[in-house]
Amino acid sequence: MSSFKIFDVAGSGMSAQSVRLNTTASNLANADTVSGDPNQVYKAKHPLFEAIRAGMGANAATNGVSVRGIVEDQAAPTARYEPGNPLADANGYVYGPNVNTVEEMVDMISASRSYQNNVEVMNTAKDMMLATLKLGQ
After folding, report:
1. pLDDT digit string (tens) for 78-107?
2. What angle do CA 8, 10, 15 make, to 5 degrees?
3. 55 pLDDT more than 70
4. I need a labelling partner for 67 at 20 to 30 A (CA). Which of 18, 31, 47, 137 fits?
């Protein structure tokens, strides 16, 4: 295995965590939106990750992680009785998204730290390779 594959692994991790951060930011940005129709309200989104496993041979894929897709949370929206709201339905209810802001903030902190860990892996691998090259001087 080439020493340079560590950059592919850490890079794929950084890319995956970037998608996770973006979906979390989207969820937080839409946490206070409302709709008069429970089917039209924003639904929280979450990325699905998949491990990439290397095969054998020169043309093998690298190890790492990829984003398999982004799924919508199927939890029911929250209904609030606000008959004065212009978006209220015939019964006076508006519907809010199924976004839990506390869980989203925890997810954002976790994704940020995972991203930072992958950056640290890349920096450590770079420093080790540079130190190895200096041995030959």
Report:
1. 999 999 999 999 999 999 999 999 999 999
2. 90
3. no
4. 31
